[in-house]
């Protein structure tokens, strides 16, 4: 199997620390709130860390896809959710 190679160790450890920190935060939030929807990001972040630590050939591609989804699509969904919340408040007169 072809292995992934990270040439810049600073970026390698930064990615691991960011994903690891988000994983810990999601674990904490899921346990304290009891909402099972938190298992989805926990699963995705665990898979990403597993790919990185095993130096799987698709680790870099998975990081890029995760970053696109996490940064672009998630931010867009948050904006859309706030927009809907404001629209409902205006329509209901609250």
From TrEMBL:
The keyword Membrane is assigned to this record: yes
Transmembrane segments: 12-30, 36-53, 65-84
Keyword terms of this UniProt record: Membrane, Transmembrane, Transmembrane helix
Source species, domain of life: Bacteria
Name of the protein in question: Uncharacterized protein
Lineage, broadest ranks: Bacteria, Pseudomonadati, Bacteroidota, Sphingobacteriia, Sphingobacteriales
